[in-house]
Design brief:
This protein is mainly alpha-helical. The chain has 2 domains: about 80 residues, Orthogonal Bundle (Arc Repressor Mutant, subunit A); about 90 residues. Helices cover about 65% and strands about 10% of the residues. The chain is built from 7 helices and 2 strands, in the order αααββαααα. It has a two-stranded antiparallel ribbon with strand order 1-2. Helix 2 crosses helix 3. The longest helix is centred in the C-terminal third of the chain and has 37 residues. The radius of gyration is 21 Å and the shape is elongated. About 15% of the residues are buried. InterPro entries: Tscrpt_reg_PadR_C, Tscrpt_reg_PadR_N, WH-like_DNA-bd_sf, WH_DNA-bd_sf. Keywords: DNA-binding. This is DNA-binding PadR family transcriptional regulator.
Length: about 180
């Protein structure tokens, strides 16, 4: 997926400024697609030049004017075309998994360092899962009355929750294995 498509989806959900888009990426879209503020602004500029988005200057009291972006007909056509393309499985790059495999060639002290790294990594993902669960509770308190768009956002969030739970289970298994190997040394 190109960043352009993630931005088009976000702007169709709600027009906004580059800053507002960056905040959405931090809060929700970042669950499945990350981008820096600089990347978002650079891509918005290109999308505007390509005619996929339009911008309107919005005056603000006591602040500089902001540019609010919305999707043009050409942008909607681009997104529709992309939505109809087949999706291929993504190649997964997971540095920690390579380190775990590489631990077979390290000494016991190195494995102890890897245990510390897995514990740290696990804590970060436990925190991320907690944020996802809090976001679900905050943003989707009554799933029985969600609009179609909200139901689709919710199912993506549920995928993120399921992924984090799976990852935490795997990390627990990695820790158990590494600790058993340490005891055997």
């Amino acid at each position: 997926m190109a960043l352009e498509h993630a931005i088009l989806v976000s702007l169709l959900e709600q027009p906004g400024s580059g800053y507002e888009l960056a905040r959405r990426f931090e809060r929700s879209i970042g669950r499945f697609w990350t981008a820096t503020h600089q990347q978002i602004y650079r891509v918005l500029k290109r999308m505007e030049a390509d005619g996929w988005v339009t911008a309107v200057e919005v005056g603000q009291e006591g602040k500089p004017d902001k540019r609010t972006f919305s999707v043009s007909a050409a942008g909607r056509a681009e997104l529709t075309g992309w939505l109809h393309e087949p999706v291929q499985p993504e190649a997964v790059r997971h540095d920690l998994a390579v380190k775990v495999r590489g631990a077979a060639f390290d000494d016991p002290a190195g494995r102890a360092t890897l245990i510390d790294e897995v514990v740290r990594y696990r804590a970060e993902h436990e925190e991320l899962l907690a944020r996802y669960l809090a976001g679900e509770k905050r943003d989707f308190p009554d799933v029985s009355s969600l609009s179609a768009g909200d139901r689709l956002q919710h199912v993506v969030l549920r995928g993120g929750i399921a992924y984090e739970r799976m990852l935490l289970d795997w990390l627990d298994e990695v820790l158990t294995t590494l600790r058993h190997l340490r005891e055997e040394s």
